[in-house]
Every structure is written in structure tokens, then in C-alpha cells.
Amino acid sequence: MTGPREEAGARLQTDRPHSARVWNYLLGGKDNYPVDSEAGDVILTTFPEFAAVARLQRRFLARAVRFLAGEVGIRQFLDIGTGLPTADNTHELAQRIAPESRIVYVDNDPLVLTHARALLTSTPEGACAYVDADVRHPERILAEAARTLDLSRPVALTALGIMGQISDAERPAELLDTLMAALPRGSCLALSDGTDNNEALNRAVQVYNGQSANTYHLRSPQEIAAFFTGLDLVDPGVVATASWRPDAGRPEEPTADVSVCGVAAKN
């Protein structure tokens, strides 16, 4: 009979790289295993700019959350594919602007959830919750999120790098549609993902997929833009990650345009 500890150990799969832990390594974090850092080094050998791309995507999250909490006035966030906690997590960004903000984090890596429960603590006025679920099960995510969020009021759904982990056969657009259909008018989607228009990155991802517990699927910018179908894109639309409302006076790192992003509203 398998106990909870053995079950958690099996889920961690420390013998194979996991996307959240590899991402943590690329961002300079320490919450990863040797197999994850080795996979990260393989990616960097093939595509040395990947660490900069990881940082760019993290900064897009910060700009998007500040925009959604500040200019749009959203007070509820559903962060799917949370990743390991780092600086300026979604709840910190949102609650800095509006302390009453409520955030639900979703991930299916047990290490992420362990760290999240310990480190991602809310303001007294707001709330944080953590859902152990896969984006492939949107109904479960919505049911669990509804314990913390009021799904009759606008919610900002953030999906950074997560749709790339879903193959075309698993119908990623339908998963997003299911999630957005359950949210009311005024809700928003912030999404970014990697593109397939750089041969070095394509090779790096191919090598990564050959050894990882998770595979990543690069798509064309047009395919990623299609995830926003039926929503109203805010300016500047779907653009290179570094180009989405860059912070004044803080130039982004020069790197290849290998990811695109956008924010759109359900009206």
C-alpha cells in the first residue's frame, strides 16, 4: 500500500526535469534538482538567450497584473501554471495596488504547491488560495477557485507559458474557452507563450522534450493570437513580450523575439 509520502515522492519525479523547476533554475532560483539544472543547461547551450526570455516573461506578468489591478480595476486573479514562488508574485503585485485583491494559484507540481502554501501569504484584507490541478481539467479548477473567488464578478485569468505545455491534440483553445466561458463580462485573459520562428529555440525545445516529464509545444504567433478569439484585445494587441506596454525608463534586455503575449477583455 502506498502512503502519502511515497505518493508525493512519485509525483515529484526527481529523476526527470519538470517545467516549473527548470524555469526556476533559468530565473536564478534554488528550488530545483540536479536533473532540472542539467536540462536548463542543455537549453542554454543550444539557445543561450533563454534565461533572458524567462525574465522577460516574468516582467510581462508584473506589467499585466499592474495594468489589470490598476487601470482595469480587477480585484480577482486566477493564476494557472503558477510556477515556483519568486519576487513579485501575482498576489504581491495586485495587493500592492488593492490590498483586498483575491488570488487563486493553480499548479500540478507538488513542489510548487508546498512552496506556495508556505510563502505566498495574503494581506489581511484579501485572500490567497492554492489549487492542485492541471489546466487540462478546467471544470475542477473553476469549482475549486469558486471557494475563494466570486465568479459572478470579473476575474483576470493569467496563463503564462502554460498553453505551450498542451499539445494540439489536447485542444488548448477549448480549455481556455471553458475557463473564460465561466467568467463574467469584464473578465480578462493575460497570456504569453513561446513561438516557433527561431531555429535555435526549436532545437533546444526538441532536446528538452526528449528528456522531460513535460513536453513544450512552440506555436506560430498567429496560432497564439488565436487563443484570444472572441475577446477584445487591449492595445498594443498580441506583440513580442518585451513590447507589451514596457515600463518607461526601464529598457528590456535585448533578446530574440521568441515569445508573444497579450491581454484581452470579455465584453
UniProtKB/TrEMBL annotation:
Pfam families reported for this sequence: Methyltransf_19
One GO MF term on file is: methyltransferase activity
Which residue windows are transmembrane per the record? none
Record has Membrane as a keyword: no
Descriptive protein name? SAM-dependent methyltransferase
One of its GO biological process terms is: methylation
The record's keywords, sorted A to Z, are:
Methyltransferase, Transferase
Top-level division of the source organism's lineage: Bacteria
